[in-house]
């Protein structure tokens, strides 16, 4: 059974709504501050990416083709030694 409506119950409802409104306004303010911090961080990250990309392109232009060929990996494949028994697995040894 619902309670009878009185002046006090109306003031209690007004108080509850006022408290909720204040809480939501504070939450909205904190979200706006967080949004601003995130946007600032994104801008800083973008600047760092551009700077690093510029440095990388400078280094790429400065390197010569001879130094690039030295950094390429080379591999030597040694086939397994032949044995009289037949193994279920075939093995290959790779040296880098």
Please characterize this protein's 3D structure.
It is a single chain. This protein has a domain at 7-69. It is 65% helix and 6% strand. It has two helices and two strands; from the N terminus they run ααββ. Strands 1-2 form a two-stranded antiparallel sheet. It is elongated, with a radius of gyration of 36 Å. The termini are far apart.
Produce a short descriptive summary:
The protein contains two helices and two strands. By secondary structure, the chain is mainly alpha-helical. It has a domain at 7-69.
What is the fold's blueprint, element by element?
Elements (H helix, E strand, L loop, with lengths): L6 H56 L2 H6 L5 E3 L14 E3 L1
Antiparallel strand pairs: 1-2
% residues in beta strands: 5-15%
**Rg to the nearest angstrom?**
36 Å
- N- to C-terminal distance: 84 Å
Determine the number of helices (DSSP H or I, runs of at least 4 residues): 2
Structural class: mainly alpha
Number of strands: 2
Amount of helix: 55-70%
Please state how the strands of the largest beta sheet are arranged side by side. 1-2
What is the global morphology? elongated
Q: What's the mean pLDDT score?
A: 83
Low-confidence stretches: none
Largest sheet: 2 strands, antiparallel
Summarize the helix and strand pattern as letters: HHEE
């Amino acid at each position: 059974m619902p309670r009878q409506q009185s002046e006090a119950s109306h003031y209690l409802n007004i108080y509850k709504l006022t408290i909720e409104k204040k809480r939501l306004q504070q939450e909205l303010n904190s979200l706006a501050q967080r949004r601003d911090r995130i946007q600032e961080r994104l801008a800083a990250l973008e600047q760092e990416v551009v700077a690093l990309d510029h440095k990388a392109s400078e280094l790429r232009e400065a390197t010569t083709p001879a130094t690039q060929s030295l950094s390429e990996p080379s591999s030597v494949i040694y086939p397994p030694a032949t044995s009289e028994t037949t193994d279920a697995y075939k093995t290959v040894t790779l040296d880098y």
